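Help! Submission page says 'invalid entity' but I think these are all valid:
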Amino acid sequence: MSMTSTLKKDFMDGIRNYKFLIIFAGFMFFALLTPIMNKLVLPGLLKSQFPGMDQETMNSMLVTTQIGNIRGYLGDIFEIGMIIVSFTFCGAIAMEIREYTLILPVCSGKRYSEIILSKMIVFGLSLILVTTVSILSNYLYSGILFGFEIDGVIPVLKAGILQGLYMVFILSVIVFLGTLMRNQIIVGLLTLIFAYVSRLLGNLLDINGFTPAGLLIEAEKLENGSAAGLYITTAITIGLIVVFVAASILKLRKTDLTRR
Amino acid sequence: MINVRGLNKHFGNFQALKDVNLNVEKGDIYGFIGHNGAGKSTTISILTGLAKADSGTCIVNGKDACKTVNPSDLGIGYLPEDPSFYKWMTARETLIYLLESSGKKNNPVKINEILEWVGLEESAGRKVGGFSRGMKQRLGIGAALINDPQLLFLDEPSSALDPEGRGDVLRLIKDLRDMGKTVFFSTHILSDVERICNKVGILVNGRIVKEDRLEVIQEENILPIYDIETDIALKNNIVEDIEKLKCVKKVQTFDKRIQVLTESHECGKELYRFFSDKDLNVVSFNLRKNDLEDIFLEEVNKK
Amino acid sequence: MLPEILTTEIVLMLLPLVAIQLGLMVFCLVKIFKEGVENLSKGLWALIVICINLLGPAIFLIVGRRKDLK
């Protein structure tokens, strides 16, 4: 009963505070924008900038395939979608502690684990749903404009879910940071820095297969089936999510919710 | 219901609570008095199980609040100093959410009862974000009662409110007393305590300096001062005669009124006799009652 | 801009994109002027919502929206 009410509350929070709307609009925007930019706007720009350029050179500078488009979209999401996700959910725990909204539920019998898990479930599922729907729209749009070239929709679905899982990992980082500090803006910024730096380090050290960012790289491959490496990356990511969630629950249990 | 022994708490170098002892019995309306920053809220957050003490035992409702992990295990109701709700929820949704947090099923009859009792039935469908301070306070009292606790902690329930809001809150606390609940509430408004409490604890700089039944405290501290008013101003020789009475320590005159500081309550008789012997027309004859304010200030100034 | 490729099909495809953009913008502007704002002035928020694509409305909905509404 109690868990259901927490889930219901977080769902209401997502709707009434426009969290779902913001991430949905944000992801869909890029999903629809990239193919149109690549088909209409960029060729036009190139033509007007370099009137004498022949078609072949132009094609080499432009994205002309559906796969290229989907990869472009996935890249955009890592850069800008991350900002949207971080700042939409940065208050998830930080603001609850800062505004003392956990005191009364906890005194009524709400468990700390429920508070954290419910947020992970509601916001996590919404992220997976949004990434999947968005990448499917992107697949459809780029297919119509550039021709379908991917073998079936499964690789696309897989890419969307992998990207969603990465976002759930980011959410667990946000939740954990929220139990450590009350300023939600700082939580958002730190999450972004963490995401960018960890991917950069992963690239430099060539260990992306063992970090959650590896999910994004795997997603960009747009392949059917799954390499053995993918299982490792997925397992590591899920492991990290569990660690962050558990750490958040333990930290929250020790937090003096009444401290001014 | 509450038994606190040797409670200590510090924040960094600041010793917030020093060896606090408290005793609250069933049915008490306990007024916990102290300046802002004296440590009232700290004490309450420890007793509600939300914060941890450095040392001491605090038996609340038969359980040790200093050792509980989940505040709800204590079976108490708590109204924080500035109760915070989700601004985007309506008053009704808030109460339902809190009721369901305890694992119970939504009970519309009960929710309506509470809304009506705190006078929010008409605003039940409005978002809490638009509530006034007084409305939030009333919703908070309703929320504290949602699990039918026998013991309630109210932290400064009336302090930040206008006179009307304060009246509402005091009425609710009186209702709680009539329901047989035990209420522990902190405040720095002493007239509120005099209106509804039967037991008082005074906290000064993290230390309990006085704890007793309200009437005992008032009794003990009644300074035998008599205010006597006559129809004409007393002549100097009469005042001197009064000063010569054995039990009188000091006399101050203010035109037709004199203020007589005496040694004991027995002096009243002598004063009375004196005035009737001299055939003076006494308009009023009063033993001055010390109010809590004086007692409180006296305790504070002892430090 | 490029009339030769603006076929009906492409215009139809552009519609959802425009709808997200305009929809969010109008939605936020209505909120700004009907319900009021927090942190910055109404004019400034309107400017942010109109000028900054997508992120403008998102920022407004997260930090600029008035939350103590009746």
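Support: the input was valid. A stray whitespace character was the problem, and the output above is from the cleaned input. The mean pLDDT of chain A is 90.
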